[in-house]
Amino acid sequence: MFREVFGFCVLLSFCNAANILYLITYIGKSQYIMLKPIGLELARRGHNVTVITVFKEHDPPPNYHQVVVDENIFDAMGGKRPSHFTSVDLSAEERHNRFLWNGGLTLIEIVLNSTQVKQFLHADHNFDVVISEQFFQEAMYILAHKYNAPLVLITSYGNCMRHNIATRNPLQLATVMSEFLVVEQPKSFFGRLRNFYFTVYEYVWWRFWYLEKMDKLAREYVPDLKEPVPSLYQLQENVSLFLINSHFSVDPPTAYLPNIVEIGGVHLSPNISRLPKDLQKLLDDSKDGVIYMTFGSNIQSSKLPMDKRNAFLNVFRKLKLTVVWKWEDEHLENKPDNVVLRKWLPQNEVLAHPNIKVFISHGGLIGVQEAIYHGVPIIGVPIYGDQYNNLLQMQEAGVAKILQFHDINEQSLETLLNEILKDVSYKNRAKKISRRFKDRPMNPLDTAIYWIEYIIRNKGANYMKNPGLELSWIAYNMLDVYAFFVLLLLLFIYLFNKILSAVKSLITNKRVVEIRNGKMKDN
Ligand SMILES: *[C@@H]1O[C@H](CO)[C@@H](O)[C@H](O)[C@H]1NC(C)=O
């Protein structure tokens, strides 16, 4: 009986199978870790999934087709980047000007110009939906127009100001900080001023400089586009669904349109893979606990300046705990015996181990979400991008402490480590947050799949979009109505003044007459 029902379901889901194009073209490995379960799960549910990506999956289901860009893209992109530790002081604007805008343009040109993608774009394909990561790869969205399919965007970092503006979701500048902006007191007057300034800067550059260059790339490299070709901005205004990597249980509560859905934690599930045997043994045997330290997939901790590196080593040397450190070199001079180095670690599985006491992290969102999920307190050293904001939220929730890069020294490290290791309230709050992060009507992966399938079933579900899209910017922001009332008020003040002076002169005239009359009598 079970088998028949199961077989029927498979058959049924196969009947509803859609052709899905999934674009994960950014070169961030942690972003890929978050995004790939969505494509794989769609394939597992019977859809015919085609992925254009720079990372290759080695054992995917047969209906998961990969177009892998391998034009030495990492060399092409990585060569221009300085060490992250030397650029820790750049402002959000400087970071955009130096890396992000041009990085996005260079990356997409390489992707679109690669043999694999060219070949794919020249073949005949049909898709029911186009899903794309949303991170400096906008030219790819033109494929939604090419295949006449609804567009779904996914962020790997949470809410996005530019998209709030494009889709006309309320901006909420007073409570929602721009994703890449570092502001120590977001709600203060200067915090809000800074947020407003950056949002305007980013929007103007993005829309009127960067997107126009992306538009050109799209037209240049993507063949057979039906005229009229919409601008990439128009495509984003019309996005059918926007899945964002945040959740109100740990991020600021925000008002969202029905087609903006939070899927924070989408790559996490209770089924944890096994750790490699040696690592399992090491963690099991570390009865005094383990500190897990990494600066993520992008930032190499082996590039840490010598004084900072020594500070870590000298503090670790004094501890009974084991330290597992993601270290990308062969050697580490003066390494204490309780420090274990690995070039790569299955992070989620490590953080799931009950002996992990503290996570020393740069504050990348994926790692922070993994720590939240497994209830591990964090010492965070933010380096760039959204890291500071991710850590600030955790600090405010009482499960993390921020240690600014320039403040790393033996004393600050020792103080922080002692505080988090000795004060159990950090662990208790981390457990509490873990529980509420998981407490949802549907787990985030099912949520993501549900809404993607909903968009396919309902052919783009245009009715979910903000009707404000049909209004002019002035009308949508009610500026005409406000202007009307201001005019009314000015008119009122004007008339009031007029009447007042009329009455005044009437009274004065009367007095003059009276005085004159009086004087005449006296004489
Ligand atoms: C699945 O997608 C691929 C493109 O990657 C296409 O060649 C193939 O025909 C599709 N299969 C079905 C059953 O639609």
TrEMBL record:
Topology of this chain in the membrane: Single-pass membrane protein
Cross-referenced SUPFAM superfamilies: UDP-Glycosyltransferase/glycogen phosphorylase
Subcellular location: Membrane
Catalytic activity: glucuronate acceptor + UDP-alpha-D-glucuronate = acceptor beta-D-glucuronoside + UDP + H(+)
Keyword terms of this UniProt record: Glycosyltransferase, Membrane, Transferase, Transmembrane, Transmembrane helix
Superkingdom of this protein's organism: Eukaryota
One Pfam assignment: UDPGT
InterPro entries: UDP-glycosyltransferase, UDP_glucos_trans, UDP_glycos_trans_CS
Gene Ontology MF term list: glucuronosyltransferase activity
EC number(s) on file: 2.4.1.17
Annotated TM spans: 473-496
Gene Ontology cellular component terms for the protein in this record: membrane
Primary site of residence: membrane
Family from the record: Belongs to the UDP-glycosyltransferase family.
Name of the protein: UDP-glucuronosyltransferase
Naturally occurring in which organism (per UniProt): Diatraea saccharalis (sugarcane borer)
Lineage: Eukaryota, Metazoa, Ecdysozoa, Arthropoda, Hexapoda
